[in-house]
């Protein structure tokens, strides 16, 4: 998915995942695409935005509730990807869960 996610009126939740990758793809690109596809079919998923350069990647996913975020975190395919991330793909990462209370958009 490319572009800015079209989210509903707040409140909703954002999961901010920032990471630094190890060298080489090692199947990361295919798995990342699968995870976006799988997440987009999860109950409560609202959208995703992602950017990566050679040093840092940031993905923000949007959810309707904390329960939806918890269900995604516990998804078995997502758990398998998380484990592979810890052993092969990431030097380090962080995730933050935030409540979105206000938003605005600009488009030309």
UniProtKB/TrEMBL annotation:
* Keywords, sorted A to Z: Monooxygenase, Oxidoreductase
Cited Gene3D superfamilies: 3.30.70.100
Give the matching InterPro entries: ABM_dom, Dimeric_a/b-barrel, Jasmonate_Hydroxylase-like
- What GO molecular function annotations does the UniProt record carry, in alphabetical order? monooxygenase activity
Positions of the ABM domain = 29-83
One Pfam family from the record: ABM
The protein depicted here goes by the name: Antibiotic biosynthesis monooxygenase family protein
Q: What is the species of this protein?
A: Priestia megaterium (strain ATCC 14581 / DSM 32 / CCUG 1817 / JCM 2506 / NBRC 15308 / NCIMB 9376 / NCTC 10342 / NRRL B-14308 / VKM B-512 / Ford 19) (Bacillus megaterium)
């Amino acid at each position: 998915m490319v572009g800015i996610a079209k989210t509903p009126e707040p409140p909703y939740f954002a999961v901010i995942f920032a990471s630094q990758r190890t060298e080489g793809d090692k199947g990361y690109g295919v798995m990342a695409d699968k995870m976006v596809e799988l997440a987009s079919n999860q109950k409560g998923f609202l959208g995703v935005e992602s950017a990566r350069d050679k040093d840092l990647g940031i993905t923000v996913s949007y959810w309707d509730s904390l329960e939806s975020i918890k269900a995604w975190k516990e998804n078995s395919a997502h758990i398998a990807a998380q484990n592979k991330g810890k052993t092969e793909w990431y030097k380090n990462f962080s995730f933050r869960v935030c409540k979105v209370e206000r938003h605005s958009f600009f488009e030309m």
